[in-house]
Design goal:
With 183 residues, the protein is of the alpha/beta class. It contains 5 helices and 7 strands; from the N terminus they run αβαβαβαβαβββ. The chain has one domain: 3-Layer(aba) Sandwich (Rossmann fold). Strands 3-2-1-4-5-7-6 form a 7-stranded mixed β-sheet, sandwiched between helices.
Length: 183
């Protein structure tokens, strides 16, 4: 895992390899995504939600670029512990709230809204196709917010009512969603 931009650019972290329940976004795909976001978002002003946070690569990338309010959610204790250690090592613990919880339960119960939401669920997750609906059903995204979901070519969200665009990086696809105006 490598931070690709901002004040921690180039820093590397190595999650434990044995029985690690994550599939980190490739540097190639992450760099492509952040090139897009860099031209659209003011990182310093964002309230970010990182669902299925895994190794914390998206959370740390946002904080490295100036974001001061990130909520990381993952149900695996080893993942949450790893991200907590990275936050301590980088001195960013004040900027990240680590929530060890089931993402679906978190979405159901949080009263907060976010300017940017990233979901990087396991591609084989049985409920993967429910995630965009739940983000909007629970009102998690601010009116001008952006929701990005990482998935593989086995899933398509082009017909979703909040779908805005799709970016393809090999077998990694990012679908962008927004609160689109009613027609």
């Amino acid at each position: 895992m490598r931070i690709i931009g901002g004040k921690f650019k180039g820093r590397r972290f190595h999650p434990p390899a044995d029985n690690w329940p994550t599939r980190p976004t490739t540097d190639f795909a992450k760099e492509g995504l952040f090139n897009i976001l860099n031209n659209r978002l003011a990182f310093e002003e964002l309230k970010v939600l990182d669902l299925f946070g895994g190794t914390g690569t998206h959370s740390t990338e946002f904080i490295s670029r100036g974001c001061t309010e990130v909520t990381y959610v993952d149900k695996f204790p080893a993942c949450a512990a790893f991200v907590k250690k990275i936050a301590q090592d980088l001195g960013i613990s004040d900027h990240i709230r680590i929530v060890k919880a089931d993402v679906f339960k978190f979405m159901e119960t949080t009263p907060e809204q976010y300017d940017y939401i990233f979901a990087g669920p396991p591609y084989a997750l049985p409920r993967i196709d429910e995630i965009p609906d739940l983000v909007f059903q629970h009102g998690l995204l601010t009116e001008e917010g952006v929701f990005v979901m990482e998935h593989n070519p086995n899933h398509s969200y082009r017909q979703h009512p909040h779908f805005a665009e799709e970016r393809n990086y090999g077998k990694t696809i990012f679908s962008f969603f927004a609160n689109l105006p009613k027609t």
